[in-house]
Target: ABC transporter ATP-binding protein
Amino acid sequence: MPTLLVDSVSTVLSKKRILEAITFELHKGEVLALVGHNGAGKSTLIKTIVGVLNKTSGNIVINGSDQDDDLLSYKQSFSYLPEEPLLLSELTVLQHFQLYGKSYQISETSLHERIDDYVTGFELTDKLNEYPESLSKGMRQKVQTICAFLPDTPLLIIDEPFMGLDVYAIAYFEQLLKDKIVKGTSILITSHQLDRVKNIADRYVLLQEGKLVQSGSIDDFDTITRRTE
Ligand SMILES: Nc1ncnc2c1ncn2[C@@H]1O[C@H](COP(=O)(O)OP(=O)(O)OP(=O)(O)O)[C@@H](O)[C@H]1O
Model:
């Protein structure tokens, strides 16, 4: 059983077909890079998978749970790091982590251990009681990143992770990704920083004008993109 199955998924926005019959699979412990030029449909596909946008046809199944039939267990099977932080202005940094702990039923002990590790790694120890509005953009991105990394879900979905992070934070982020991969987490990642993604990913799928035009091993990526340009 694949960790993520995207089967013939189409999405229409403002009466325009943005995604056309996208089909691919992501297996346990695999890292799949979703690549394509600006406007190819990467964010639309990610938002469709996480349920921010509704697909018009097709099926999406995560770890055996179908988005249409079993939404609660579908949602518990992935965590999502969006391109722009989606923090709540009325919650402190710590309260965000506690909210994720509750939503994903993380035990108190694990939650505290993980929060300690991550806030130290991202240099946020003195920010736990701050509200998002008093944080810098990079700090908000770090908080959102920690929220996404706290749960141990079968699938981690990451949209443009390196935006706004300094070099130290990027190095720590890459280490966290490697830890997740070792644990068997499957990762779907999109980024314009292809050199970084190439170091992490096993396979890629290439979108062009809302269609999946190529997929394969990340090692073949350079040759193939040159051919399709
Ligand atoms: N709400 C919307 N209504 C209509 N069209 C939209 C909407 N959102 C995005 N689009 C269109 O969908 C297409 C795909 O956009 P999307 O943001 O998914 O691309 P992307 O591959 O993530 O691009 P980028 O690399 O620039 O982030 C574009 O042509 C865009 O203009």
Q: What stands out?
A: The mean pLDDT is 93. The pocket of adenosine-5'-triphosphate is lined by residues 13-14, 16, 18, 36, 38-44 (CB under 6 Å).
